[in-house]
Amino acid sequence: MSQFIQSLKKKFKSWIYRRRTRRYLLLSIGYCLVIYTTLVSCNISHDSTQQKAASPSNGTANVVRIVRSKQLTALAVLEKQGTLEKRLEPLGFKVQWPEFAAGPQQLEAINAGALDIALTAESPPVFSQAAGTPLVYLSATARNGKTISLLVPTNSSVKSVAELKGKKIAFQKASIGHYLLVKALEQAGLKLSDVESVSLPPPDANVAFSQGKVDAWLIWEPFVTRAEQKKVGRVLINGGNLRDTSNFYSTSRQFYQAHPDIIKIFLEELQKTEIWSQDHSQEVAKLLAPVTQLDVPTLEKMHKEYEFGLRPITEEVIQKQQQVANLWYDLKLIPKKVNVKEGFLTPEQYAEITPKDVLANK
After folding, report:
1. Which of 13, 26, 224, 324 is deepest in the core (most CB within 10 A)?
2. Same domain, yes or no, for 125 and 201?
3. First and final C-alpha spacing in the chain
4. Beta pairing partners, 116
């Protein structure tokens, strides 16, 4: 009897085990199917999202971020007129205009992926390249130093640059102000080490200058005219006979490679605005009075000091930029020698993005 009972127990346990195994197997299969379905669904959703982001026709707009100009420039006019937005809208692109204190801050933003197109003088790109930023020079502007000045307080006894020896001079480091200060001091037989450099972004330098905390300030418009109108500063010299460089529009290597078509459209619309701005001083003044915080008659008068129109990137431009890089290296203000050509495109690549009338000026 006991053997019979033991036999029944074994059969019962075997039956229970088979039932459990089958149940677990079915549950496992079901669980795997749920996981698989979820993963496939997520993947489809992710692919769909990527396709929507890449396809403007689905209503998802891409964004190009162009620095806001608060000076008397065609770039400021371009923002006000809105023609670039109209041109890019069919392509699914919107335009944003973020503000930055000066050129060095713009290129820091380019490197951080927070800005797509910058407008700076010659020095910020060199410092940016020295820091390892994969920069691309897109186009140049006219060489004009008349809109950049060395200011001293209205009641200052200083009559010449030579008299600034040992005095505090404010400027934005790695900017056109920094560059022209070096040039002005050289003309006066001085070195940068002969003055006390006070590196401040324009808004902070404006406060320091107004409060008499610095003896001079090398800055650009519209800060110059504002200081004169408020009778807190007067022009000691301007950069008309000092400047030998251009401003540059630039971008990141990544943005150039991803969107050469957008860059081409930007430069085309910008050049149209440059030409229009040259011939419409009164309209430009009315548009930019709120931007510059200057009145229309003042802006109309200032307009005569400006040169409009993009300039092509030539070998001469590249060589001049290399000289700038060499200067900053010789002054030990950048950590390594910079080969500026690494930031320039080939002539063929420039021909693809540069307006034809600009290329004709070579």
Report:
1. 224
2. no
3. 113
4. none
Same domain, 237 and 261: no
218 and 252 part of one domain: no
Q: Judge if 176 and 203 occupy the same domain.
A: yes
Cis peptide before 90 (omega within 30 of 0): no
In DSSP terms, 148 is beta-bridged to 220
Amino acid at 29: I
Angle between helices 103-112 and 123-130 (to 10 degrees): 40
Rounded-to-integer distance, Cα 129 and Cα 334, Å: 10
Total domain count, the chain: 2
Which tokens belong to 251?
């971008």
pLDDT in tens, 167-210: 999 999 999 999 999 999 999 999 999 999 999 999 999 999 99
Residue 84 is part of a domain; what is its CATH number? Answer: 3.40.190.10
How, if at all, do strands 93-96 and 62-65 pair? parallel
Residue 201 lies in a domain: yes
DSSP string computed for 274-320:
HHHHHH-HHHHHHHHHHHHT--HHHHHHHHTT---S-B---HHHHHH
- State which residues form the domain around 157: 148-241
